[in-house]
Amino acid sequence: MKNKLILIFIVVSFALASCQAKSIPTDEPVTLTVMTHDSFAASADVIAAFEQANNVKLVFLKSGDAGAALNRAILSKGSPQADVLYGVDNTLLSRALDEGIYESYESPLLAKIPTEFKMDASNSALPVDYGDVCINYDKAFFAAHNLAIPQTLTDLTEPKYKGLLVVENPTNSSTGLAFLFATIAEYGAEGYIAYWQQLKENGLVIVNDWNTAYYTNFSASSGHGPQPMALSYASSPPVEVIYAATPLDDAPTASLVGKNMCFRQIEFVGILKGTQHRELAEKFVDFMLSVQFQEDMPLQMFMYPVNPDASLPDVFIKYTQTPDHPATLDPAVIAANRDQWLNDWTEAILH
């Protein structure tokens, strides 16, 4: 009997120990999924710092360009594939808000962000960075041909620039769409089609995407492309310097930054509705607005930080031009007219 009691005691003890072991929380990191456009980049040590500080594993779900990423978030909004979405810009913001994909979050760091970047009063989409979509030009070509640098959008319709400009199709490309909006800001909804028709008559080349425009058609980047002007970003010249095969003393390209020649693009981050990790998602949003992430971003994604406390790298300051009068359009105006503008443009320019 005594032996039987001892045996029962041992069995019960093992069972209790097993239950206690199962109830002890593990230190395994939680996975936080961030959906982004394909251009997202951050330094490994910066990402690691956030992961270690919060015992989290970040997974970045790259989903094409900003439009494609937004479409994916909308299609899965009943059962979100990520906790956070980064990369929706001001050309797409109204659509994202209308679809109700975000949960509101007023980050304490919003207090630092200038009002000009805050485009969502509900704080569902918080500004992270900004940059200017501009036409870049090949300095060597213009010097060799003793060609004046265009100072206005209208200048681009002059015969001396015939066949020298390549842009992206606004129905496919976010940069192309930004340039379309720049022309609408300059000429109005009544005049932009006529302007594009003048560009077309002057030999405008339209390609599907930024990679083709910049790396195939642009003479300065490919070295043999036929166009010395290509639609890109004001931050593209420092990229040419930083990633040059041989060291350069100066950027081979520069940007056309006359009034309304560039479109100011602002990118946002938001917590996706239905996240199972709301607290961690908030911390990640705070992290993207923090000085640590904001100072890392210029040489990773070649965009400007919205946090004024963040310092810019010298090479970024030296080779990036900032337009004094970039074009902008109210997101509500974009939302109300985007489809019609694109339909009219397609009918007039592509057909």
Secondary structure layout plus pairing:
Blueprint lengths: L1 H22 L6 E7 L7 H11 L1 E7 L3 H10 L8 E6 L3 H6 L3 E2 L22 E13 H6 L20 E4 L5 H28 L3 E3 L2 H8 L1 H4 L6 E5 L2 H7 L10 E4 L6 E10 L5 H12 L1 H6 L1 H4 L2 E2 L8 H6 L11 H20 L1
Parallel strand pairs: 1-2, 1-3, 6-7, 6-8
Antiparallel strand pairs: 3-10, 4-10, 5-8, 5-9, 5-10, 5-11
Helix pairs in contact: 6-14
Summed up, what is this model?
Helix 6 (174-201) crosses helix 14.
Describe the structure.
With 351 residues, the chain is α/β, with parallel strands linked by helices. It folds into two domains: 30-130 and 265-318, D-Maltodextrin-Binding Protein, domain 2 (3-Layer(aba) Sandwich), CATH 3.40.190; 132-263 and 323-350, Periplasmic binding protein-like II (D-Maltodextrin-Binding Protein, domain 2, 3-Layer(aba) Sandwich), CATH 3.40.190.10. It has helices at residues 2-23, 44-54, 66-75, 93-98, 139-144, 174-201, 210-217, 219-222, 236-242, 278-289, 291-296, 298-301, 314-319, 331-350, and strands at residues 30-36, 56-62, 84-89, 102-103, 126-138, 165-168, 205-207, 229-233, 253-256, 263-272, 304-305. Strands 1, 2, 3, 4, 5, 6, 7, 8, 9, 10 and 11 form an eleven-stranded mixed β-sheet that branches. β1 (30-36), α2 (44-54) and β2 (56-62) form a beta-alpha-beta unit. The chain is globular, with a radius of gyration of 25 Å. Residues 1-14 and 19-24 have low confidence and may be disordered.
pLDDT averaged over residues: 90
Shape: globular
| Rg result | 25 Å
Order of helices and strands: HEHEHEHEEHEHEHHEHEEHHHEHH
For the biggest sheet, the summary is: 11 strands, mixed
Total helical segments: 14
SS content category: alpha/beta
Q: Name the helicity range.
A: 40-55%
Strand coverage percent? 15-25%
Low-confidence stretches: 1-14, 19-24
Number of domains: 2
| CATH architecture descriptor text of the largest domain | 3-Layer(aba) Sandwich
CATH top level class name of the largest domain: Alpha Beta
CATH topology of the largest domain: D-Maltodextrin-Binding Protein, domain 2
How far from one another are the termini? Answer: 97 Å
CATH fourth-tier homologous superfamily of the largest domain = Periplasmic binding protein-like II
For the secondary structure, the number of strands is 11
